[in-house]
Write a structure and sequence with these properties.
Blueprint lengths: L24 E2 L5 E2 L3 E4 L5 E3 L1 E3 L6 E3 L3 E4 L2 E12 L4 E2 L6 E8 L5 E10 L8 H5 L4 E3 L10 E8 L7 E8 L3 E3 L1 H10 L16 E8 L3
Parallel strand pairs: 1-9, 2-16, 3-16, 11-14, 11-15
Antiparallel strand pairs: 3-7, 4-12, 5-6, 6-8, 7-8, 8-10, 10-11, 13-14, 13-16
Zinc ion (ZN) binds next to strand 8.
């Protein structure tokens, strides 16, 4: 199967008229403080996975529910980027995972998790990549303790770059085993889009109470 060629990403923007694109560089000095949120991940439990090869990168389809304050979001799929797409003060983590949810209004919300290579980190992704049909514990892909998140409105990061996507970026990074990282690189090397102009969008840092507590 052909894969999306990130060398030609400059021409992707012609697929959309939207000016509020993702990813972005999150600049700490320019963050606004937003209201606290309760991020309830107890619905992201053990689930059977179905891996589907797609041009934009392998997608892992599974069941799950995220609750933000009292609102429920249904998990549609997740995937991984080799090299983070969102930057923090210009710095990229080694990998970024996107949990893609359907909002109650039919729109899209993406929860982004960031990983830094760590020799002693547990193997989290081998089962996901190589043992299809098995059940995996989604919470193991999230940091256990999250104190705040970054939120803003943007787009999906692959064509057709669907707009009006709510983003939640979890700043606390999780260690990733070099073997897991090599698996991403082998499948979809450097599949990260360059950061896009903010165009005046507010970017908020919001304190979080994460459930369940580990
Ligand atoms: Zn993505």
């Amino acid at each position: 199967m052909n894969k999306l060629d990130y060398h030609y990403q400059d021409v992707w923007r012609f697929t959309t008229m939207a000016t509020c694109q993702s990813p972005i560089d999150v600049v700490a000095a320019k963050l606004q403080t937003g209201p606290a949120m309760v991020l309830d991940c107890s619905g992201l439990q053990t689930t059977a996975l179905e891996r589907k090869k797609q041009v934009i990168g392998d997608q892992f389809f599974c069941q799950g529910l995220l609750r933000i304050d009292q609102q429920a979001y249904s998990l549609i799929r997740f995937h991984v980027h080799d090299g983070a797409e969102h930057l923090f003060d210009g710095q990229a983590a080694d990998a970024e995972l996107h949990f893609v949810f359907q909002r109650p209004d039919g729109g899209t919300l993406v929860l982004a998790i960031f990983y830094e290579e760590e020799a002693e980190a547990p193997l989290r992704f081998q089962k996901i990549y190589h043992n299809q049909g098995q059940r995996v514990q989604l919470q193991s892909l999230l940091p256990a303790d999250v104190s705040s998140v970054i939120t803003y409105r943007g787009s999906l990061t692959t064509p057709p770059l669907k707009k009006d996507v709510d983003w939640i970026l979890v700043k606390e990074k999780l260690g990733i085993n070099p073997v897991d990282l090599a698996t991403f690189k082998q499948d979809y090397p450097d599949n990260h889009r360059a950061v896009q102009p903010l165009n005046g969008r507010p970017v908020q840092q919001r304190p979080v109470k994460m459930l369940p507590k580990s």
